[in-house]
Design brief:
CATH architecture of the largest domain: 3-Layer(aba) Sandwich
Radius of gyration: 20 Å
Number of domains: 2
CATH class of the largest domain: Alpha Beta
Number of helices: 11
CATH superfamily of the largest domain: Glutaredoxin
Shape: globular
Strand content: 15-25%
CATH topology of the largest domain: Glutaredoxin
């Protein structure tokens, strides 16, 4: 079926039905999930998904035929390909994040909207399972320093990425924000990382804050609070999907739950703190975690 072809067996005006045939079945969804995480080659996809080679070949071909993925040769004789998201595929990433969020809340959770998690929640194991994985090189985000920025600082001993839901300046937070468990404390967290910035720098650690707010909102906040490190805007949810970070919805917008990821040499995730229940303690932990090779996730 050519890219853009429609499903004759369904209402031709129903975008849900037509999108469903373009994306395919559950295997296609998890294939897209892994490609968004940076696993763009056939063998790593087989390993990550534990899928038969036949099924993976069929799903990749389907997604290429429907314009969701493209093949890019990286080797000749024999020819081997990267599978990369097309613009249509990249536009599907927020749908994957929404599906993950819905699953965390309604399938694996109790339906409660929350900016944090209980210790036994399934997404806790998923996020803490980031340890040992690599942050993909394919993600760059708009930042308050004016350019697209790699979330991982290339010349630092390590990078501390802290995700937070939202700050209330300059855009006011939605009504009921204080009633959402774990939502309060984003300004405090930024200030604590700001106040400890010289200590992080002396230890060879770069700091990056990440939220789904727009860059102009982040820049206004950074100016008002004298934030010395970049704030990254993940409005398109590229980093969120790449690391499968936990989210929630408030006032119709996807927000990151509070999480801290410490990345070391080779872009390897060395430690994760999630859920974050003690913000000052977590800032102190982030400063010293790479000093102890036995530090728990």
């Amino acid at each position: 079926m050519a890219a853009g072809a429609r499903w004759a067996g369904a209402d031709p005006t129903c975008a849900v039905a037509q999108a469903a045939v373009a994306v395919g079945d559950r295997w296609s969804l998890v294939v897209l999930r892994e490609i968004a995480r940076g696993h763009t080659r056939f063998e790593p996809l087989v390993d990550e998904l534990r899928i038969s080679r036949k099924v993976l070949t069929e799903r990749l071909g389907h997604l290429v035929d429907h314009g969701v993925l493209e093949r890019v040769a990286y080797q000749d004789n024999p020819v081997r390909h990267d599978y990369r998201l097309t613009p249509a595929g990249a536009a599907f990433v927020p749908v994957l994040v929404a599906l993950q969020d819905w699953g965390d809340q309604w399938v694996l959770g109790d339906g409660e909207a929350s900016a944090t998690s209980r210790g036994g929640a399934t997404e806790v194991a998923r996020v803490q399972g980031l340890v040992g994985q690599q942050v993909p090189t394919t993600v760059e985000l708009p930042s308050t320093v004016g350019d697209l920025l790699d979330p991982v600082a290339p010349d630092a001993r390590g990078t501390v990425l802290f995700g937070y839901p939202a700050t209330g300046r300059p855009t006011p937070l939605p009504d009921g924000w204080d009633d959402i468990p774990g939502a309060v404390g984003c300004t405090l967290e930024n200030r604590l990382f700001r106040d400890a910035h010289d200590e992080f720098a002396a230890a060879g650690l770069a700091v990056r804050g990440v939220s789904t707010q727009r860059t102009d909102e982040q820049a206004a906040f950074a100016d008002a609070e004298d934030i010395p490190f970049p704030l990254l805007s993940d409005t398109d949810l590229a980093l969120t999907a790449a690391l499968r970070l936990p989210t929630f919805r408030a006032a119709g917008q996807v927000r990151l739950r509070r999480v801290v990821v410490v990345v070391g040499a080779g872009r390897r995730v060395e430690a994760v703190r999630y859920p974050v229940t003690d913000i000052p303690g977590t800032v102190r932990w982030a400063r010293t975690v790479l000093d102890d090779e036995r530090a728990p996730a």
